[in-house]
């Protein structure tokens, strides 16, 4: 029996002989992570009588971030063929493989297209229903379209006044809001005092942009900026036309002028638009996290050099096997020397110069990280031309199979990222660097950025951007040009940085108030290797678990590329088995 309801409470029941009791699992959060957990529970074919309660005010499966109720202009930054919620033959978890369609197979669209988030919402909602239907008859699922307001012990209180009692509780809260940081409070107060507009860090689909007009500074040049760019231009009636192979923007007249900058001063790299030309690189090769466990590790000295060598291995494996005409020696000879040398060594640089004649085919992590380091311009106009050329070159490179070595590096990036969690806390620089290289927008979004720049709607500020609250305005500039901009609006074009001490989530606040949760140095909720909450005394909770980007279990995407032995699927598998063991199955 499967139950689908909006309200209800868990009830326990005994059989006539008093030996069987209905068990209750409450999952707070009903997005793709919760659906993936239920899929792994179903895969185990548990025999116990279990009532599952999923609590989320947003649609089950899609959740808040992927809900259908958002602008149809907003799109994924992944190709349809690169999105799946199902395990496949690459999966090496203990649970069984239960294959299913990728997003491209589910909706039968161009595998290399970048679908809208509304399309992904449909896929995730279908997946949740598919999981419900695949559960054995001894497991029921009740969905509560409500907000969990607090947790006391294993009782979950909902915002309608009802409550649920759990034998096991899982917090699958997803991406969370945070209370404003002191700087953001001061900027908001300045905006209110001077009649300006200030938008703090939040999810772009949730932002109220109705008052954004005139000259507006956007601090951040990643995916949040791309979303805001779309909503404030095409979302206000502008349109794009293509003439002679070049995209142009036709304004509606309702757009503000957007001044954008960041620490790097450049947008995230475009997603690649091609496939590998050679065989898939064997990964992991040099960075094997299991070989490092149990050691006292320093990220920069011990871990990053191996990560860099692994990513470079993916790059050069594709260059040599997919483009033998671009290299100066056989791959076997190169690979033998490459394997023997430390990444940061003069000998490695000499090998690269000898084996790879064109510097554009070599990988340079420092140049990739800070392309504007030490570069200055006499005027803002000179910089606009420079950055347009930079973006044009990036789009061209990421669209040309001749540079498919970048895709080899991307696959190695994914391998490294998936292994790092559990080895040591994520280094803040590394997480940003990974996103910058691997989680950029579709190439046509950068073409739109170029069209907006040529139309004067978007203006580039530069690297090491600064913002100040001045009399009657916000001022902004950078180290790249001497120009200073005065604006009547400031938008933080990034997601909120969540920490337990500043969490806006009522459940975590209630648990923190009594010491039932604790945080690490980065503010993440501490969990054990299998996902149990760790309290302020350092003790693991026997029946309460947490999973997601706000935990030390770390932020694996809830869906993944097929054939990659996705870390999130392995994590779901471990958690599902631990939950079932705790329930007594």
UniProtKB/TrEMBL annotation:
Top-rank taxon: Bacteria
Domain FAD-dependent urate hydroxylase HpyO/Asp monooxygenase CreE-like FAD/NAD(P)-binding, by residue range, is 26-175
Provide an example Pfam family for this protein.
Answer: NAD_binding_9
Q: Which protein are we looking at?
A: FAD-NAD(P)-binding
């Amino acid at each position: 029996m499967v139950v689908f309801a909006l309200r209800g409470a868990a009830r326990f029941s005994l059989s006539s002989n008093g030996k069987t009791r209905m068990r209750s699992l409450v999952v707070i959060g009903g997005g793709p992570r919760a659906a993936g957990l239920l899929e792994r529970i179903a895969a185990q074919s548990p025999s116990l009588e279990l009532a599952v309660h999923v609590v989320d005010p947003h649609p089950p499966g899609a959740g808040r971030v992927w809900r259908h109720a958002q602008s149809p202009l907003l799109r994924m930054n992944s190709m349809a063929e690169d999105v799946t919620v199902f395990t496949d033959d690459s999966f090496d978890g203990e649970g069984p493989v239960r294959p299913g369609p990728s997003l491209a197979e589910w909706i039968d669209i161009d595998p290399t297209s970048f679908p809208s988030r509304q399309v992904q919402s449909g896929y995730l909602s279908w997946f949740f229903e598919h999981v419900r239907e695949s559960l054995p008859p001894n497991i029921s699922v009740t969905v509560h379209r409500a907000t969990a307001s607090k947790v006391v012990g294993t009782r979950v209180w909902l915002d309608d006044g009802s409550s649920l009692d759990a034998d096991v509780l899982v917090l699958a809260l997803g991406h969370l809001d945070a209370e404003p940081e002191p700087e953001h409070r001061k900027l908001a107060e300045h905006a209110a005092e001077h009649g300006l507009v200030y938008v703090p860090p939040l999810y772009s689909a949730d932002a109220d942009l109705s008052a954004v007009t005139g000259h507006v500074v956007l601090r951040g040049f990643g995916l949040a900026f791309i979303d805001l760019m779309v909503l404030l231009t095409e979302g206000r009636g502008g349109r794009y036309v293509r003439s002679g192979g070049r995209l142009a923007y036709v304004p509606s007249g309702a757009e503000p002028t957007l001044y954008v900058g960041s620490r790097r001063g450049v947008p995230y790299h475009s997603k690649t638009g091609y496939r590998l030309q050679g065989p898939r690189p064997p990964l992991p090769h040099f960075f094997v996290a299991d070989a490092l466990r149990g050691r006292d590790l320093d990220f920069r000295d011990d871990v990053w050099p191996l990560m860099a060598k692994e990513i470079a291995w993916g790059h050069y494996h594709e260059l040599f096997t997919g483009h033998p005409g671009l290299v100066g020696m056989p791959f076997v000879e190169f690979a033998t020397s490459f394997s023997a040398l430390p990444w940061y060594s003069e000998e490695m640089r000499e090998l690269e110069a000898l084996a790879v004649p064109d510097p554009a085919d070599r990988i340079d992590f420092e140049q990739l990280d800070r392309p504007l380091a030490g570069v200055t311009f006499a005027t803002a106009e000179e910089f606009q031309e420079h950055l347009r050329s930079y973006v044009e070159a990036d789009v061209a490179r990421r669209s040309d199979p001749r540079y498919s070595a970048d895709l080899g590096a991307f696959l190695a990036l994914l391998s490294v990222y998936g292994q790092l969690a559990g080895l040591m806390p994520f280094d803040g620089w590394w997480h940003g660097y990974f996103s910058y290289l691997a989680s950029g927008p579709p190439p046509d979004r950068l073409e739109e950025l170029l069209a907006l720049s040529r139309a004067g709607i978007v203006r580039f500020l530069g690297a090491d951007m600064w913002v100040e609250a001045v009399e009657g305005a916000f001022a902004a500039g950078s180290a790249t040009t001497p120009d200073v901009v005065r604006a009547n609006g400031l938008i933080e074009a990034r997601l909120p940085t969540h920490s337990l001490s500043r969490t806006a989530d009522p459940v975590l606040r209630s648990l923190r108030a009594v010491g039932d949760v604790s945080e690490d140095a980065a503010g993440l909720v501490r969990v054990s290797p299998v996902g149990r909450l760790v309290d302020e005394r350092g003790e693991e909770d026997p029946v309460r678990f947490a999973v997601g980007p706000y935990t030390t279990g770390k932020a694996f995407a809830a869906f993944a590329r097929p054939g990659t032995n996705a870390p999130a699927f392995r994590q779901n598998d471990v958690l599902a088995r631990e939950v079932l063991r705790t329930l007594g199955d």
